[in-house]
Structures are given as C-alpha cells and as structure tokens.
Amino acid sequence: MPCLNLSTNVNLEGIDISSILKEATSTIADLVEKTEAHVMVMLKGTVPIAIAGIEDPATYGEVVSIGGLNPDVNKKLSAAISTILEAKLSVPPTRFFLKFYDTPGSNFGWKGTIL
Predict the structure, then answer these.
(1) Domain 3-114: what homologous superfamily?
(2) N or C: which end of the chain has fewer CB within 10 A?
(3) Which phi and psi (to 5°) does residue 103 adopt?
(4) Contact, 4 vs 41, CB < 8 A?
C-alpha cells in the first residue's frame, strides 16, 4: 500500500482538497504500479514550516511503499507531486521536499496483522 503523507504551511481553507487527494492518488497508483484502491494520501495544512527561516508556502512529504519505488520512479513521483502542489497550493518546486521509503510488507500493519 503506497502512502503519501504531506504537511504544508498553506492554509487549506477554501482549497479543493478532494481534487488534490484524487490527483495524487491516481499519480501514485500509475507510477508505483499499484491499484488506486491500495493508495493512501494524507494532507495536513497550516503546519508551521520554515525553509532557511522563511515561512513562504512550503510542503514536506513522505512516500512509503511496499515495492514499486526506485530512483527512476522516485524522480517521476517527485516531479508529479511537485506539479500538483504548485498548481493547487502555489508551493514552488524549490520549497517542496519528498522523502521515499521502500519497505517490506512485514513493516506494514493492516487488518490487525502485517502484510
């Protein structure tokens, strides 16, 4: 199950959050080659974030997946998510960081057990 967890200092009031979640879900499913039914996306807004002491719009994210991640996929995911954030939240690519974790299923709990 790929999971994208995003935190941004942008106030999400009045933002079409559903469109961000849907577009990110579709993008991740396509690039990681998983079904959308197994993709989770979380978006937290109004999180205090400063880069170089500057509090302009910024986002930090992490992608965790059981397989499907590699340098080529990670580069494509970073570009695609950055494009979504710039279009929907006005976060420039220079103020977006994304960390990737490819993990074994034994590190994921689901339905009261592990995968």
Answers:
(1) Macrophage Migration Inhibitory Factor (3.30.429.10)
(2) C
(3) -130, 150
(4) yes
Say what the pTM is: 0.94
3 state SS of 12: coil
In the numeric block, the tokens 């205090």 are attached to 48
CB-based contacts of 60: which residues, under 8 Å, 6+ apart?
6, 7, 8, 49, 96, 97, 98, 99
User: Residue-wise pLDDT tens for the chain (115 aa)?
Assistant: 899 999 999 999 999 999 999 999 999 999 999 999 999 999 999 999 999 999 999 999 999 999 999 999 999 999 999 999 999 999 999 999 999 999 999 998 889 999 8
